[in-house]
Structures are given as structure tokens and as C-alpha cells.
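[audit] Reproducing an earlier prediction to check determinism. Same input, same settings, fresh worker. If the C-alpha cells differ from the archived copy the diff job will pick it up downstream; this log only records the rerun itself.
[audit] input (178 residues):
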Amino acid sequence: MHNALMILAGSAEGAAPKGPTLWGMEPYVIVSVAMLVLILIMVWKKVPSLITGGLDAKIAEIRQQLDEAKSLRAEAEAIRNEYAAKIANAEKDAEAMMENAQKEADAILEKAEEDSKAMVARRKKMAEDKIAAAERDAVQDVRNRAATAAAVAAQELIAKKHDADADSKLADQVIAGL
């Protein structure tokens, strides 16, 4: 066992020199002290709070944009539902008008069989034209209101989101697309 200790002691004496030292500290200690100094300077200059503050501001901005997008979507869905209901009502009205016109035409037909077949054809044609005109007017009115609402909504969105440069770029894109 004594020989083993001698071998170990001999190998320690003949070992290669270790790396450079500064004030008697090993290189890993120097790196650790430098990192500690760097971290302390960053904490002293409040770098983490600056980063956190910037991230919090960005998160708040994104949340605001998401809330605005949700409200715009809800508004658009409400308008769409409103006009879908109006179209459905217009279709029901047209259907009711068709039923009423059919009943009237049948009554006129019974009476007109006694008078003349020409009178029946003319009244039925007039009723159908009236229904078609009312249906066209109702559909056109719904379309006009939808277009007006869409134009107002688009105007507000464009006014909020675009400046003169964005408008000219958009116009250039539309012209290029044509």
C-alpha cells in the first residue's frame, strides 16, 4: 500500500501545470464571478423589469386587438342575422301573397267561368305581376339596406385602419388586379 501512495505522490509531482490563474483563482471561479457581476449589473439596471414591461405592453395591445376583432365579428354576425331574418320574412310575405293571390284567382275563376275566360287570364296575370314586383321590391330593399350597412361598416373600418398611404397602395392593388 505504501508503494501505491508513492506512485500517486510521484504522479502528482510530475503532473503537467494547471491552467493560468488570476489572484489565485481557478478559471471556472473567474468565469463564475464574471457571470455574477454581469447578472448583478443587469438587476441593478432593471433589465428584467424593462423586458417584462415591454412584454406586458405587447400582450395588452394584442388583447385589445383581439377584443376589437371579437366585437367586430359579433356586430357583423348580428347584421348578417338581421338581414337573413329580413330575407326570410320577405320570402314568407311573398309566399303569403302567392297564397292570397291564388285564392283570389280561384274565386275569380269560378265567377269568371260564368262571365268569360279572358277575364280570368287577365286577373291572374295581374296578380302574378304584382307579386313578382313586390318580391323584387322587397329583395331590392333588403339588398340596398345590406349594401348601405356594409358600406358604412367598411367606411368605419377603413377610416380606423388605413391612412392615405395605405389607401393609395390599396387602390394600386385593385387597379393592378383589373
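[audit] rerun output stored. Observation attached for the diff report: The chain has one domain: 24-177.
[audit] end
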